[in-house]
Amino acid sequence: MGVIEIEVDPLPCRWCERLIQQRSWWRLKRYCNRWHRLKHWLAKLADFLLS
User: Are 13 and 30 in contact (CB under 8 A)?
Assistant: First the structure.
């Protein structure tokens, strides 16, 4: 049995817009590191609380 290879285009980080190479097609990386994920989450929380 052969291995199915699927090419996935790099996606930009949601915080800094840097392109991130994707390792798998079923679980896409949205942030380049955990601090950018935390910053984005805190910004969304602050926006929710202030609105």
Answer: yes
Low-confidence residues in the chain, pLDDT < 50: none
Tokens of 46: 């602050």
Vertex 34: Cα angle to 30 and 37 (nearest 5): 50
One-letter amino acid identity for 24? Answer: S
Give SS3 for 24.
coil
Neighbours of 16 (CB within 10 A): 13
**Best CA proximity match to 20, nearest among 32, 28, 38:** 32
Question: Per this entry, what is the length of the chain?
Answer: 51
